[in-house]
Every structure is written in structure tokens, then in C-alpha cells.
Write a structure and sequence with these properties.
By secondary structure, this protein is of the alpha/beta class. It has a single domain, classed as Ureohydrolase domain (Arginase, Chain A). 34% of the residues lie in helices and 17% in strands. The chain is built from eleven helices and eight strands. It has an eight-stranded parallel beta sheet with strand order 2-1-3-8-7-4-5-6, with helices on both faces. The two termini are 24 Å apart. 53% of the residues are buried.
Length: 304
């Protein structure tokens, strides 16, 4: 039976201040996502986009609740993530489906991971320059896209931690981060004390991508499903200029492809987020095209 790749767009830019990542799903589709997957032998099913409110339609971006007031657009983001969850659950339930979620900012992962983690053991590979493990109490910016991992671990406003169903979606030992290089002070403390595997760019510089990727796979030996949450800002801005929050010193072209190749070799990758592409800042949709290349590698494209 031919496997089907289901594509769901979430054009949301409410999780950060800089506008433009809401156009990310269109940029990735325009870069030939379905055509590339078709050449790999997949059937593709584009499930369209989740409807997302415009920032201009929201009169007050901050909740006045003392605990959650430092989370911009919190109720709107929670509602979108709940809709993502509802749309994704039946897609994830079919074992013949692969899932690609097109962002939008990284806060969409609160809904996507909740959906894929509901009925089976899942390992989350967080490929991102940032840790995204703030809460409204620790955030310096109020941007919810920096709170995703915390929410998935059950820490944060209940409206986020309970997306889809009550409580944590993952335990810390189910999370591995790679490419990390830009952390707020509270995030550093939290990650040092956590059971999350964190492989920073220094680790990559010292050891290379291959042993670290194999370490992630060893960590996830017992899981059935690996979900890759790929923020394109993990890449060096020289090769991926069109991202919402660029940070110098990221993954090179070959490092990124090798990581995708090694994760694909596990045979466990069934779903992926592609997030934080900002076409306004891009150079001829080069970042959108690179996202398509990376997901093709993640889903089985090989040199030989």
C-alpha cells in the first residue's frame, strides 16, 4: 500500500512580534513540496489551512490575568492549537499516514505534538536555535512561540497545557534538542536541571552531527514514533535568511541534511513541523526551497 503524506497548513504569526511567518505555508507549497514527495513515491493529500485570526483583529494582545498576562495573544493561540489538534488526530490515527504541518510560528507545535502523542509513545526531536521552554513568568518578550516545550511538558497556562486533553503531553526524557544556541537565562537553568537531552552548536562543533543524532536515536530506542519539530532558524542565516528570528552560527547545509538522513534511517519518523519561515525576509524563497529539500531527505530521499 502506498503511504500518504497529509499536509496541514497553520498560517499563524500570533506567537511572535515580527509579522510574516503566516505566509510560510504558502512559501513551502510554492517551493514544490507535493511534487518532491510525489517523486519519492508518496501520495499526497493537502488538507488546506487552519483558519487563524489576524493580529490586526485583536484589540488587546495581552490577557489581564496576573499569571498569564505576559503571554501575547494567548487565548487566540490556544484556540488555533486546539483546532490543529482536532484536525490532526484522525490523520495521525491512520498508520499509513505521514504528517507534515506547515507553520506559521512554532507555537503550532502545542497542537501538533498533542495530536501525535495521544495514543502512542513518541520521541520529540526539537531542531531549533532556541529552547522554547519559557513560561509567562519567565519570558522576557511575552511571545508564546518561546513557550512551546514548557507547555508540552505541562508547565504554563492551563489553556496551553490542556490543549487537546488535560496535562503534560510528554515527559522530559521524551525530548531531545539539537542546534540550540540562543537561550534566555531562565531557560539555561531549566534545561541544565531537566532530563531533556540538549545538543548545542558547541556540541556539534566538537563532535559532529552524526554521533549526536545517533545518541538521540539511542535515547528513543523504545518509542514507536519520532516527531521532528524543525524550526528553520536552526540553520545558519547565510543559507536560510527567511526566518522569523535568525541567529548566527547555525547548521550548515550538509549538517542539516545529514541530521535528516540519520533520523530517517530509524524508520520511526512519521510527522514533522516546518515552522518560522518568513518570506518577507527571504531571498527568492530560498528558505522555502530548503525546507522542501530537508523534508524530502527526512522522508527518505537518498544520494544513492
Amino acid at each position: 500500500m502506498t503511504n500518504t503524506v497529509c499536509i496541514l497548513g497553520v498560517p499563524m504569526d500570533l506567537g511572535q512580534e515580527r509579522r510574516g511567518v503566516d505566509m510560510g505555508p504558502s512559501a513551502i507549497r510554492y517551493a514544490g513540496l507535493q511534487e518532491r514527495l510525489g517523486r519519492l513515491g508518496f501520495e499526497t493529500r493537502d488538507c488546506g489551512n487552519i483558519q487563524v485570526p489576524l493580529a490586526e483583529e485583536i484589540t488587546d494582545p495581552f490577557d489581564r490575568d496576573e499569571e498569564t498576562g505576559r503571554a501575547r495573544h494567548l487565548p487566540q493561540i490556544a484556540q488555533v492549537c486546539a483546532e490543529v489538534y482536532e484536525r490532526a488526530v484522525p490523520l495521525a490515527a491512520d498508520p499509513d499516514n505521514y504528517l507534515i504541518f506547515l507553520g506559521g510560528d512554532h507555537s503550532i507545535s502545542i497542537g501538533t505534538v498533542a495530536a501525535v502523542a495521544q495514543d502512542e509513545s513518541v520521541g520529540l526531536v526539537w531542531v531549533d536555535a532556541h529552547g522554547d521552554i519559557n513560561t509567562p513568568k519567565t519570558t522576557p518578550s511575552g511571545n508564546v512561540h518561546g513557550m512551546c516545550v514548557a507547555a508540552l511538558l505541562g508547565d504554563g497556562p492551563q489553556v496551553l497545557t490542556d490543549v487537546g486533553y488535560s496535562g503534560p503531553k510528554l515527559r522530559p526524557e521524551q525530548v531531545a534538542m539539537i542546534g540550540t544556541r540562543d537561550l534566555d537565562a531562565p531557560e539555561k537553568l531549566r534545561l541544565r536541571d531537566s532530563r531533556i537531552a540538549v545538543y548545542t552548536m558547541r556540541d556539534i562543533d566538537e563532535h559532529g552531527v552524526a554521533p549526536l543524532a545517533r545518541g538521540i536515536l539511542d535515547r528513543f530506542t523504545m518509542v514507536k514514533h519520532i516527531h521532528v519539530s524543525l524550526d528553520l532558524d536552526v540553520l545558519d542565516p547565510a543559507i536560510a535568511p527567511g526566518v522569523g528570528t535568525p541567529v548566527p552560527g547555525g547548521l550548515s547545509y550538509r549538517e542539516a541534511h545529514l541530521l535528516m538522513e540519520l533520523l530517517a534511517d530509524s524508520g520511526k519518523v512519521r510527522s514533522v513541523d516546518l515552522v518560522e519561515i518568513n518570506p518577507i525576509l527571504d531571498d527568492g524563497n530560498s528558505t522555502g526551497r530548503l525546507a522542501v529539500e530537508l523534508v524530502a531527505t527526512l522522508f527518505g530521499q537518498r544520494i544513492l
